[in-house]
Amino acid sequence: MTSEGESLVRVETGQGVATLTLDSPHNRNALSSRLMTELLAALAAAEGDESVRVVVISHTGPVFCSGADLKETAEATARAAEGAPAGGGRVPVSMLGDVLAAIWEYPKPVVARVGGPARAGGLGLVAAADIAICAEEATFAFSEVRLGVVPAVISATVLPGSPRERRPSSC
């Protein structure tokens, strides 16, 4: 388990590349509010670094990203239902839209280096990137549908990359 002092997003820069490594393998690199906050900060720092020409999002452990941290989301939702602020008043999964928009609108190329499963919001990270480089072990799924949840937050990044004949018609 990662301690409070350890970063959940490791940052390495060199030769024009900023590598942002999701480093929370104990929960399959789940998108906790802390991990997403660190990822947004790392993206902002790389954007401001003129020596960085491309950003690579990678991971430790066998799973690229399992999606939202459902345990943290359930706890925050329960606190909110009791009237207590849920981590500043936001349910952590609501941050995912901010993260996906930051990657989607990023002014430098973003590469997702995927060496294992990408589920739910993790698939959104891959789809928001400009390029995805995937190992044979990489698999992709909208696992939230098994819980009866529509993958609405990530659909904004997934649908534009879909083959045209599979896109929903506007008429």
Automatic annotation (TrEMBL):
Molecular function as annotated in GO: catalytic activity
Gene3D superfamilies: 2-enoyl-CoA Hydratase, Chain A, domain 1
SUPFAM superfamilies: ClpP/crotonase
PANTHER family: ENOYL-COA HYDRATASE, POLYKETIDE BIOSYNTHESIS ENOYL-COA HYDRATASE PKSH-RELATED
Family (UniProt): Belongs to the enoyl-CoA hydratase/isomerase family.
Protein name: Enoyl-CoA hydratase
Lineage: Bacteria, Bacillati, Actinomycetota, Actinomycetes, Micromonosporales
